[in-house]
Design goal:
The model has no long low-confidence stretch (mean pLDDT 94). The protein is built from 19 helices and seven strands. It is mainly α and 482 residues long. It has two domains: 168 residues, Fumarase C, Chain B, domain 1, CATH 1.10.275; 300 residues, Fumarase C, Chain A, domain 2, CATH 1.20.200. Helix 13 runs antiparallel to helix 14 and helix 16 packs across helix 18. Helices cover 56% and strands 4% of the residues.
């Protein structure tokens, strides 16, 4: 924390101290929580109340979420508390920062948050660790938090009035997953332009439909960016030049010709979600809030609907990117539609099945993504004796978005393998410099398949090329992608 932030947090904390010394009924300070908001808490029990809320709310179940999600939650919560409006001590912010710097990751189960009143259960699992209770994760195994803190030389924090509540009443889990997804999806969209360009070459598609003057007539920026990328990626392609005046196709299939329209819509969705995340990162999400004049007001800033919508919208967009990609994958295997490529991209089909079932894998994930793209944010079940009678389900939207993006990275990996195989089969025609660089990078990890062999390791290697950004790195030695 900067000295200025520390001073600001301390000033707001003084307001809470004055309220604590009074007999006023102020939610979360002198009263219970949720449906128990009308229950007055005696002064001698108010500190215990802050520990009790963490114990009772750390009620998650299921597998533990990934370390990066937990750390994102912790960073964002520390940021929010450091804004001052939560009315906590600077020491509480320090304890979160110290946990992060020590590399201690609380064990946070996947199930428990409804995305309103904040990500209560996930954040309670984090907060409980600060107090030396609960579990942390070490090498995938749970370890008592008290033990991990002791080994790191950290002391458990003794919570003061309002601080337990302030640790859990925010959208930090949803926002963390959204911020991470934005980075992941941006990389996948650039990669999708690359694998699409490789497939367009492999299927003897035209580059004319990606010309800038055509896409200037439709004013969606994402579409223009994707079309510009694909046109540049295909520049100088010997394969495209070989059939530029051929009458073999009057128009390419939609899965080739309409790629910028679909990928562009996904890019614009990414832009919208980025705006939502940026606004939320600059916001305070807590309840109640301590204001500049010392008053404490209840509000609903913990409700995750803005994030839930964005997370759901991204899942729809990512599912559609995978859906159109899978259609190109399928087209490359079908000799009636692949413009002269052998069945299932294998030189001696019949004895060999080639990439037949790898396409099944892509289709299964594209279909799973379709199911996962159904919105979570339209669902709601009331809780806390009907006090919390509408919830956002934003945490669930984030969890399923992460799964959609995992599936998309694998679908793109499959397209990369198929397109590289097809480009080899087009020899002696040469691909463009940029797509050739992607092809060369794939061949460093994955060989040309002459006859049937164990495909799963090759597909896993392709997924890693996508996830790591290695394909983009190789391509951008020739073409800088938008």
């Amino acid at each position: 924390m900067s000295p200025e932030a520390r001073e600001r947090v301390s000033a707001f904390r003084e307001h809470v101290g004055r309220i604590e010394d009074s007999e006023r009924a102020v939610y979360g300070i002198t009263t219970g929580f949720g449906a128990l908001a009308t229950t007055r808490i005696p002064p001698e029990e108010r500190r215990e109340l802050q520990h009790a809320i963490l114990r009772s709310h750390a009620a998650g179940m299921g597998p533990f979420v990934e370390n990066e999600v937990v750390r994102a939650m912790m960073v964002i919560r520390a940021k929010t508390l450091a804004m001052g409006y939560s009315g906590v001590r600077p020491e509480l912010v320090d304890s979160l920062v110290n946990l992060l710097n020590a590399g201690i990751v609380p064990a946070v189960p996947e199930h428990g948050s409804l995305g309103a009143s904040g990500d209560l259960a996930p954040l309670a699992h984090v907060g409980l660790c600060l107090a030396g209770e609960g579990w942390v994760l070490e090498d995938g195994e749970t370890v008592p938090a008290e033990e991990a803190l002791r080994r790191a030389g950290l002391e458990p924090i003794e919570l003061e009035v309002k601080e337990g509540l302030a640790l859990i009443n925010g959208t930090d889990g949803m926002l963390g997953m959204l911020a991470l997804a934005l980075k992941d999806f941006d990389l996948l969209l650039k990669t999708a332009d690359v694998t699409a360009a490789m497939s367009i070459e492999a299927l003897l598609g035209t580059d004319r439909v990606y010309r800038e003057e055509l896409h200037a007539l439709r004013l969606h920026p994402g579409q223009q960016e994707s079309a510009r990328n694909i046109f540049r990626l295909l520049e100088g392609s010997g394969i495209v030049a070989s059939h530029r005046t051929s009458p073999h196709l009057v128009q390419d299939a939609y899965s080739l010709r309409c790629t910028p329209q679909v990928y562009g819509a996904a890019r614009d969705t990414l832009g919208f979600a980025t705006q939502v995340a940026r606004r939320e990162l600059r916001s305070t999400t807590d309840n109640p809030l301590v204001l500049e004049d010392g008053s404490v007001e209840s509000c609903g800033h913990f409700h995750g609907e803005p994030l839930a919508f964005a997370l759901d919208f991204l899942a729809v967009a990512a599912a559609e990117v995978g859906a159109i990609t899978e259609r190109r994958v399928d087209r490359m295997l079908d000799p009636s539609r692949s413009e002269g490529l052998p069945p299932f991209l294998i030189p001696h089909a019949g004895t060999n099945s080639g990439f037949m079932v790898a396409q099944y894998t892509a289709a299964s994930m594209a279909e799973e993504n379709r199911r996962l793209a159904n919105p979570a944010s339209t669902g709601s079940l009331p809780t806390s004796a009907m006090q919390e009678d509408h919830v956002s389900m934003g945490w669930s939207a984030g969890i399923k978005l992460r799964k959609v993006l995992e599936n998309l990275s694998r679908i793109l990996g499959i397209e990369a393998v198929f397109a590289a195989q097809a480009l080899d089969l087009r020899a002696p025609l040469e691909p463009a410099s940029a797509t050739g660089a992607a092809h060369h990078r794939i061949r460093r990890e994955i060989p040309f398949i002459e006859k049937d062999e164990f495909l799963a390791p090759h597909l896993k290697a392709a997924e890693e090329l996508v996830r790591s950004g290695a394909l983009i790195e190789a391509v951008e030695e020739f073409v800088k992608l938008d």
